Amino acid sequence: MTIIVTGGAGFIGSNFIFHMLDAHPDYRIVCLDKLTYAGNLSTLASVMDKPNFRFVKLDICDREGVYKLFEEEHPDIIVNFAAESHVDRSIENPEVFLQTNILGTQVLMDACRKYGITRYHQVSTDEVYGDLPLDRPDLFFTEETPIHTSSPYSASKASADLLVLAYHRTYGLPVTISRCSNNYGPYHFPEKLIPLTIANCLNDKPLPVYGKGENVRDWLYVEDHCRAIDLIIYKGRVGEIYNVGGHNEMRNIDIVKLICQKLGKPESLITYVTDRKGHDMRYAIDPTKIHNELGWLPETKFADGIEKTIDWYLANRDWWETIISGEYQNYYEKMYGNR
Ligand code: NAD
Ligand code: TYD
Fold first, then answer.
1. Is residue 320 a part of any domain in this protein?
2. Total structural domains within the chain
3. CATH number, domain containing residue 71
4. CA distance 252 to 262
5. 158 C-alpha vs ligand 1 centroid, how far in Å?
6. pLDDT digits over 20-41, tens only?
7. H or E segment at 152?
């Protein structure tokens, strides 16, 4: 069994590679990654020398390169994590989001059609459903919830999902889609809320909270997401969408305060900044389908997951300090300098 994991040098893709090499030591895993600002080869250092692992630096939009890789590897399964993933960056510069997230997905699926595979899995997001109001805690996203996107990021992910379903219906491509809520855990790029807050706390820097900090996200420990995808690619029904979520809704401000408390830092570091444009209020997944059909449930309680995550950032300062000392500085200055 050979699996191509695209975007495997990023946050969730790398955790998925670790999970798969552990859970299925007899599989060959090929990581295809362009190594954008969000991809980090040092993340994969521990698996680089494994005989059943290969890293290939490649853009999913590079049709010739992708076809060549399929000819070399004859993959059985493709799991597509490769994407531009940060909402704030999509507001600044949408174009690359459309290129990678939509057109890159098309190239991968064309390769799947040309060379034949048993499964193409698209890693999508709950953000395709738009948001829910804060005063309706009874509402959740199901797989039937209409697509209703807010940001260029979520619009690009939703477009890709529609294309994936179209390739299934039109060409019979054996696809599945997972739509997951916000992940957290090791190797999370420090531009996202949880790792940014941990890194800034450790450096005694202001903790930027958008608007009033009342927005709610449904946080899932990354390993639980990886297990869900592992299940879907084997047991999920072709042509189906599976929502993946932790039933763990939290307000941003409560997350930031919790991290302050865990790291013994004062809440006076919290700085309320101008809200994100079009900021989604609440995401909340109903994971009944994946539970009933595939028996999946989240295993990591938030209290344990956040401890593990903080411990990881404490033990791996080199990993994130290298990132925030480089090009990321310019991004940070631009996004937060006058906010
Ligand atoms: P990330 O930004 O940490 O990693 C993305 C990876 O994709 C990087 O390694 C990057 O180098 C690579 N990449 C980007 N453009 C590429 C291209 N053109 N060709 C090849 N590689 C390219 O993202 P993440 O948080 O790990 O998210 C992975 C996937 O999961 C994305 O598709 C995202 O939409 C989805 N998702 C993320 C979350 C979350 O909370 N982070 C939640 C639900 C779904
Ligand atoms: P983020 O981690 O960017 O994920 P997403 O936008 O995909 O949900 O943001 C999570 C929440 O935290 C979101 O409501 C925006 C908010 N946020 C802040 O308040 N401050 C920050 O510096 C960042 C990056 C995010």
1. no
2. 1
3. 3.40.50.720
4. 15
5. 15
6. 999 999 999 999 999 999 999 9
7. helix 152-171
